[in-house]
Write a structure and sequence with these properties.
By secondary structure, the protein is mainly alpha-helical. It has helices at about 15-30, 45-55, 65-80; strands spanning about 35, 60-65. The longest helix has 16 residues, at about 65-80.
Amino acid sequence: MSVTIITGAIGAGKTRYCIDQIKKMHKAYPQNRMIMLVPPHYSHVTEHMLISEFGGTGINNIECTSMEKLARELLTGAEKKLG
């Protein structure tokens, strides 16, 4: 598993770059889960971009989530394993 942090000014093409990279990785490894981590206020917009690029999310192992949502998912999963 790898993590890439992309930074840049507004309009610099960060989202487009990420979607292009996800497209490349998905083509090479369609079974791998890919998560695009975005600020909470941008998740809806990014989700729409992913849907238009890939025809949906979740069903093809590609997700868009915020840090808060990811943390909640991880904590819930850990509780289920421990409980």
